[in-house]
Amino acid sequence: MAAKPRQGAQKELVSTLTGRRYPFSRIQEFTDDGESLEVHTGDLANASIRSGKHLWERFADFMPFENLDTDISLGEGQTALLHAGPELAAFTGVERLLLKNETQNPTWSFKDRGSLTCIAMAREMGEDVTATISTGNMGNSIAAYAAKAGMRAIVFVPEFTPSEKVMAMGIHGASVLKITGPDYAQIKKELLDMAGEISLRLVSGNGPIRVEGYKMIAFELFEQMEGEVPDYIAVPTSACGHTRGIFKGYRELKEAGLIHKIPKMIVVQARNNSPIVSAIKQGKRQVIPFTGFHTVAEAITSGNPMGGDEIIDKAARFGWLAEDVTEEEILDSQRRLAGAGYFVEPAAATSLAAIRKLRGDGKLEREASVVMMLTGSGLKDMSVMHHHHADVRETDVAGAGQAVRAMLDG
Ligand SMILES: *Cc1c(COP(=O)(O)O)cnc(C)c1O
Predict the structure, then answer these.
(1) Atom 8 of ligand 1 has which residue's CA nearest to it?
(2) Position 2 confidence tier, pLDDT thresholds 50, 70, 90
């Protein structure tokens, strides 16, 4: 089964900062100057929603594929959108707090929607090897989608990637190369150059095709909220692909006349590594690089993200919010979300504390509708569990009754 694009749609790659245009056939992650690229599929004024089982079939007018082969899907998307409940609403001070639970994806993070489009494009280009560099979730996701499509996957990871994620890549059959070195951002730049030299397509977290996958989140939210547009969407941000993908999806819905306003994004980072949030808060126009940091939120550790300047630029132009959170706030948020039924990894928990702080500073209104992206599952990094208390005791069966009474009392 395949979805056909609109007749006559002109595809191009456009630099998000200079507006310079590049041919679509020359798919690259960034321009030579390191600017983010995005796909333009021509005039969307006549784009419409079709019928179809898959989201990308219904929104085929917005997608850049000749054929999107449904056989490579692992059933990504269709994740729950739920009200956060009274406790988290009270904690943040935001009444209409909604959780978009991306941990329900096939490899337990939002990365799967982007891997679907990356692998689809690799197929369309006739490639049989794909590669990525990742702190974990993207490698895990690419490994699974490559396995489904019958392609080889090579994943470069930094040393600090949790073993849960490395093992998951391995069991899908990916070849994993751990790269040692202090500066992940620098490693990433050098690997992108190396890949170019050996003609290996290395997909990063912020490439134009990946962003096309993430924009489907906007389409899914549009359907789930029955056309209503949330005031804000909070996203823990690292390589920036997720943030700009969701925003791009909403802008395209507006271009097609399907909605009349677009949400504001809330850019969230760990204080220990906040190259984008620091720049926005200080009114700078460029990323402020971070090196030599540590954060429990290892999934958001791009210290000098290529493409970060685009986010800073859009934050200024569209009135986005930005907030950083401390290590203690991250762990507290992880506990509170788990206490409400959602076990997410530390990176995914950051938004909760950020929303509370923005509300406390009066930057967010109590009545605002805010969607919080729960980006990845708590099972992906068990090493942080020593920061938390779990009530686990041991007894033989004869002592069970007494143990239960003790637990209920204590
Ligand atoms: C990748 C990732 C992020 C950051 O997304 P970017 O697109 O790199 O900005 C946030 N949370 C989790 C759990 C992730 O895996």
Answers:
(1) 239
(2) very low
